[in-house]
Amino acid sequence: MRFTTPPRPLDVTALSHRLAPLARTATRLHPRPGSPTAHDSSIGGPLLWPADEPWPYCAGPHPQEEADGVPHSPEDIRELRRVHAMAEARLLRDHHAPARLPEEQAFYERYAAGRPWCEGPVPLLPVAQLYARDVPLPARPAGTDLLQALWCPYGHGASEPRTALFWRSAATVTDVLDAPPEPTVVEEDGYLPRPCVLAPEEITEYPGLRQLDQETQAELADESRWQAAGARWDEDGALDPHEYWSGRLSTAPGWKTGGWTTWDLTDPEPRPCPACGTEQIPLLTIASSEWDDATEGWRPAEDPAHDRPDDPSEPTLVDIRGGYTLQLHVCPASPDHPHLQIME
C-alpha cells in the first residue's frame, strides 16, 4: 500500500528567503504490520544474515537494579500482543463480550510475574533492515546495498538502548541464517519491534526551531509573515507561529532516514565523529510513534485517526522509555567510524 504525507499547509519559503537553502530530503518509512522476509526491507523482520557470520551479542553490563519493571521473554511478549488483538476483535464484534476469557486471565497472571533476569552476554534483536533499492541510505559505503540495525533489549544510560549497524552487499549472502538466537528476556516490551513491511516516501524537511539562527527565528515569530503566506491560525489550531513551525513544517515524526536531526527536548549539540571529528549526519530515526496530537498534520492521508484499538500511529509497537525517539548518526567520511545516537 502507498502512504502519502499531506501537502504542507503553506509554502515554507514564503516565510523567509533564509529557509530555501536549508531544505533536505528525508524518507519516511511508513512501517505497517506485515510478514516480511529476509529479502524485504522491514522493521523487526528477519535479517539477510550470513549463516557463517557470528550473530552479534551485547556484553553488558545489564544491572537489574536499573530496570523499571519485570522482564519478559520475546515469546511471552508476542503472546501478549496476540491475546490483546483477540480481545479487541471480540469486543468490536460484541460490546457485551467478556473483556478476558479464563485462559486469557491465566496468561495475564503468568505474564505479570515476569521471567528471571538474564545474566551474561545478550544476543541483539533485529530493529531494521533497509535495502538501497527501496530506501535512500545516507553515507552508504561503496559496494554495499543493505543496512541492518540491531539493538540490545536492555537500557544503557542516556542513549538507550545500545545499537549496532551493519552494512553489506546482499548478493554476497548466499546461505542465510535461519534461526538467529534471541534474548532469554528483554527489559522492556517496547524493545521488541513488531514485524512491519515498509512503504517508503520521500519528503522535504527543514531544521527545527532550535537549529535556526536568531534572525530566522525572529522572522518566524512575525505573524504578518504567516498571514501573508496563507496560514489560518483558527482553522489549524496552532497556539503560536513557533509551535506551528515545530509541529507542521519542520521535521517529520516517525521512522525515517536522512533529513534533519530533531531536537525536541534539548538544545542542538555538535555531533563530531569520535574517530575523526567530522560532523555526523542523520542516518536512521527509530520512533515510538508515527505521529501524535502535536504532529497530527503529518498523518498519512490513507490512515485513520489514532483513537482506535489498533492504533495506526504505533505500528511497530516500539516504545523507547515512554515515547522517546532514537536517532542514529553516521560519519560521512568513513563507514568504519563509530556511529552516534541521540534520544529525544
What this model shows, in words?
- The protein is an alpha+beta fold and 344 residues long.
- It has a single domain, classed as Hypothetical protein YwqG fold.
- 17% of the residues lie in helices and 17% in strands.
- The chain contains six helices and 14 strands.
- The strands form three sheets. It has a six-stranded antiparallel beta sheet, with no helix packed on it. It has a six-stranded antiparallel beta sheet with strand order 2-9-3-6-7-8, with no helix packed on it. A two-stranded antiparallel sheet has the order 4-5.
- The radius of gyration is 21 Å and the shape is globular.
- This is DUF1963 domain-containing protein.
- Into which percentage range does the β-strand content fall? 15-25%
Q: Number of domains in the coordinates?
A: 1
| N-to-C span | 30 Å
Q: Please summarize the sheet with the most strands.
A: 6 strands, antiparallel
Please report the total strand number as a whole number: 14
CATH fold-level assignment: Hypothetical protein YwqG fold
Q: How much helix is in the residues?
A: 10-25%
User: Average pLDDT, to the nearest integer?
Assistant: 92
Class of secondary structure makeup: alpha+beta
Helix count equals 6
The best one-word shape is globular
The CATH class name reads: Mainly Beta
CATH architecture: Roll
Rg, nearest Å: 21 Å
Protein name: DUF1963 domain-containing protein
Organism: Streptomyces evansiae
Biased composition (Basic and acidic residues): 299-311
Region (Disordered): 25-45, 295-318
